[in-house]
Design goal:
Blueprint lengths: L2 H5 L6 E2 L35 E2 L6 E4 L2 E5 L15 E5 L2 E4 L5 H15 L4 H7 L14 H6 L16 H22 L22 H7 L6 E6 L7 E6 L2 H8 L3 H6 L10 E4 L5 E2 L17 H9 L46 E2 L2 E2 L27 E7 L21 E2 L17 E2 L26 E5 L2 E5 L13 E5 L16 E4 L7 E2 L3 E3 L13
Length: 536
């Protein structure tokens, strides 16, 4: 990697210039007590303010604000599940492009290097479902073997990925970005992934020394062919899964919150209050706070890009991410050009030979077509995109006026009998929650949720192992569970109605489709105004 490439990953500590040049608040002297900060003769309190790590790699900064969410036009036969209402969205970051096959292959490669020898089942769980391309009356078999792996589709959106898999990818991406940030500032040396290679196994004579240095872990014996004696086998030693999970895999929360998790390759060279070395913490402004899926409100806001003009007013009533009501571009320089990848009519997937209109019979590259006013590509068509929200048809009836979201589960770290934090299969800190902390069904708009009583009126119905909430007063209630997640944006095989950002559908969070992909988002800390952050 070139030095120029490396610079893209190094967090930049930028002091944000206040809009007021005579600001009294500072990081030298306390305005509350008058004591000096950074004074070794006192408590040496270290005061930091307005540190911003810059725009995360591959993302666009989106300034939030007030907008009208919901349907923009009336379609008599369409579901009425997104009535208009006014909301406010905080500023946030969002991926410029949909996550690509190359992005997901990079993720799988890391999983293969780390877990292939010790927990191959974790790699299997991360694989996209290529069988989503199969149709009873279509010959799509080449896509099963080539769409995800072949270089011809490297920059096409990954599909066959469930909501749950997408969320796991977000956590993985967070950890890799933060791991690189710590390496870049000298807080830790690059992880030695070579120790996990099959040809780097230990021999019997190494067992005692290794196990003495790494209690309480014990090496695992594996039987392998003896290349020097054909037909015979020999015993080699392999690192145990628990050691790889606990010590090799970097996880942001594990690094921050486990006192006994200190990578043997070093701590942050910064000093604490009185000179002792310490690990980086969240107050240093170096680590990103976490990639995630966007909320439905964020996604719809980002798609419409309601940016105010010079008069301070935004354009209301846009049906699509671009201006106007037409799926074709009406500007002089791009007249007639399709503005998204979708189906124009029965059997018309890309136009006629010699005059293709959207150019792609299935998905297209994630940088195809023109971006919207926020600089985001393919916020309409190509593939639908997962958002974080749990689906309810009546979500519009019960909503917060700012940062609207349905799907909250208030979690806390899981501890064992000794009070020690435990790790899950991927080396992340396990979480737990009580039934009262699960707010996915909170005031979901059915008649039961409107009855004021302390007694539970809901009943549960199970089908194929999935638990559904049933309103006993409604015999026609749809079977929508807590695992039903919203997806939006329309796809390569959808009609133009679904291309509108206000349209919404749902699918179980553990299922996938050839028409659904995703992109990541991240919350923005501090000032909501981009110009105060030196952006724009």
């Amino acid at each position: 990697m070139s030095n120029a490439s490396k610079l893209l990953f190094i967090p930049i500590l930028a002091l944000v210039v206040s809009a007021c040049s005579t600001r009294e608040l500072n990081t030298k002297v306390s305005h509350a007590t008058g004591w000096n900060y950074f004074d070794e003769k006192t408590t040496n309190f270290q005061a930091y303010a307005d540190i911003d790590a810059g725009i995360p790699t591959g993302m666009v900064a989106i300034e939030g604000g007030t907008f009208t969410i919901g349907e923009r036009d009336e379609f008599i036969t369409a579901p009425r599940n997104n009535f208009t209402r006014t909301l406010t969205v905080s500023s946030f970051y969002m991926d410029k492009y949909e996550i690509t096959n190359m992005d997901w292959n990079e993720y799988l490669h890391w999983m293969d290097v780390v877990f292939n020898q010790v927990a191959p089942e974790l790699i299997t769980k991360a694989l996209p479902d290529t069988t989503v391309w199969r149709e009873e009356m279509a010959y799509n078999e080449p896509y099963l073997g080539y769409y995800f792996r072949h270089p011809a589709y490297s920059f096409y959106p990954v599909v066959g990925v469930s909501w749950s898999q997408a969320m796991t990818y977000c956590q993985w991406r967070t950890d890799r970005v933060n791991e690189l940030a710590l390496i870049s500032i000298g807080a830790m040396a690059p992880t030695d992934y070579a120790q996990l290679a099959p040809n780097n196994r230990l021999m019997e004579e190494d067992r005692e020394a290794w196990e003495t240095e790494n209690p309480p872990y014990q090496l695992v014996e594996v039987e392998v062919p003896d290349e020097f004696n054909p037909g015979e086998t020999r015993i080699e030693l392999m690192l145990p899964y628990e050691y790889v999970r606990d010590k090799v895999v970097f996880n942001t929360e594990k690094y921050l919150y486990l006192d006994d998790y200190i990578p043997e390759y070093g701590r942050h060279p910064k000093l604490d209050t009185y000179g002792a070395e310490r690990k980086v913490n969240s107050g240093d402004g170096i680590l990103v706070i976490g990639y995630r899926l966007p909320t439905e409100a964020e996604w719809e806001f980002a798609a419409y890009a309601p940016i105010a003009g010079e008069d301070g007013l935004t354009i209301e009533g846009k049906v699509y991410p671009w201006s106007g009501y037409h799926p074709r571009d009406l500007s002089k320089e791009n007249a007639g050009r399709m503005q998204a990848n979708f189906v124009r009519g029965r059997g018309d997937m890309m136009g006629v030979s010699g005059a293709l209109n959207d150019n792609y019979v299935i998905t297209g590259p994630v940088d195809a077509f023109l971006p919207n006013d926020f600089g985001l590509y393919n916020m309409a068509g190509n593939v639908n995109e997962w958002v974080m929200d749990v689906y309810r048809e009546t979500s519009y009836q019960e909503t917060s006026e700012y940062n609207s979201f349905r799907g909250n589960i208030f979690t806390q770290p899981k501890r064992d009998e000794d009070g020690k934090l435990s790790l899950d299969s991927l080396g992340c800190i396990e979480i737990m929650f009580t039934e009262s902390d699960d707010k996915r069904d909170y005031r979901d708009g059915d008649s039961v949720s409107r009855i004021q009583t302390d007694y539970p009126l809901d009943t549960l119905y199970k089908q194929e192992g999935i638990e559904y909430k049933v309103d006993p007063s409604d015999i026609l209630v749809p079977r929508i569970s807590k695992n039903a997640r919203v997806y939006k944006g329309g796809s390569w095989r959808d009609r133009v109605y679904w291309v509108s950002p206000s349209a919404r559908r749902f699918l179980d969070q553990d299922k996938s489709s050839s028409t659904i992909g995703f992109r990541c988002a991240m919350s923005m800390l501090g000032s909501q105004q981009l110009r105060e952050k030196g952006i724009n």
